[in-house]
Write a structure and sequence with these properties.
By secondary structure, this protein is mainly alpha-helical. Helix content is 37%, strand content 9%. Strands 1-2 form a two-stranded antiparallel ribbon. The protein has a two-stranded antiparallel sheet with strand order 3-4. The protein is flat.
């Protein structure tokens, strides 16, 4: 049902953007308008009908790119106060752990073994999981604010090379940005060596 809705919204948005582009350039042919405003701006998607700007690389996100999350209903008359159902509620809580970041950031976190490459400390405080909804909300907010993505350039000889995305503590990022003479960081595929 939601995928059909997202597809309908994408179609409606495409019609609006196409109409705007044709109206903005009334003396240009249709092919010119399509080449100028539509293309595969998002390289991870094989969709050539994405509306965007070729100069800046900015583009409109499509509704159909949104992940559909199915929610499981609570079973019958299950109550959190029933001591016989503690296992059921524990399983539901374990399955519903909210993620503090997107999938790409989680992959980076795994490749870095959960450590900040600048200071070697853990990026996420994992001594105990939050116990209440309020604690979860605070933990997610703090985690999102505490970390930032940073492109780090490294070659063994120190010359510029391929940029790699890294997860750093926000304070480590500020320190590294302020001090350009700090030692080079390891590439994303190698562990930090600090333990």
């Amino acid at each position: 049902m939601s995928s059909e809705t997202f597809t309908a919204l994408d179609h409606y948005l495409w019609k609006l953007t196409y109409k705007w582009a044709k109206h903005s350039h009334p003396n240009k042919p249709t092919r010119w308008v399509i080449r100028r405003y539509f293309g595969t701006f998002n390289k991870s998607r094989q969709d050539r009908w994405v509306f965007g700007d070729r100069d800046s690389g900015a583009y409109l996100l499509r509704f159909s790119w949104t992940n559909i999350v199915r929610h499981q209903m609570v079973r019958g008359t299950s109550s959190t106060d029933d001591p016989a159902l503690t296992g059921y509620w524990a399983d539901r809580r374990r399955r519903g752990i909210p993620r503090p970041m997107d999938t790409a950031s989680l992959r980076l976190l795994e490749s870095q073994h959960g450590c900040c490459p600048q200071c070697g400390g853990l990026l996420l405080d994992a001594d105990r999981p939050p116990q209440s909804p309020r604690e979860w909300e605070q933990w997610l907010t703090v985690t999102r604010k505490a970390m930032t993505r940073n492109a780090i350039v490294l070659q063994p000889d120190g010359s510029p090379g391929e940029a790699k995305l890294r997860l750093l503590h926000a304070h480590c990022h500020r320190q590294h940005a302020g001090n350009r003479k700090s030692p080079a960081l390891l590439p994303a595929s190698e562990p930090s060596g600090l333990a």
